[in-house]
Design a protein that fits this description.
With 147 residues, the chain is of the alpha+beta class. It has helices at residues 53-75, 100-115, and strands at residues 21-24, 27-33, 36-37, 41-42, 81-92, 122-128, 137-145. It is built from two helices and seven strands. It starts with 20 loop residues before the first strand and ends with a strand.
Length: 147
Amino acid sequence: MAELGIDLPAPFPPAGEYVNAVRTGDLLILGGHVPFSPPQTIVLGKLGADLDTEDGRRAARYAAISALATIRSALGSLDAVKQIVLVRGVVNAAPDFIGHTQVIDAASEVFVDVFGDAGRHARLAVGVSSLPANIALEIEVTVEVAR
């Protein structure tokens, strides 16, 4: 992680009546993770209006790093990850924004950089008209856990 320039923050606290991660069998399911970059900064704005694709990519990277922090907290170590199975990316986008895939690619790249082939995953990248508190994007992650 240090070689990649990634310093994991503490997991971002839930903003409602839910938990950040649930383990069931060999799967760890993460809820929506927002683009959080310490100290206490969340990337806000609509892609294609307030933010450009590069801003979105930076936000997606922050969200992936936040997800890694949750994975480490839930499993005790990132070494317990067998496979990143699925990433769902939801982008707060202006109607004419079409760079959803390029934005969420930045999150995917973090998982591949950290886990190699075990970081390659299925994915969904979509745009929506709004997200809570005008957050730029959210990602959900499904992880297969090594026994």
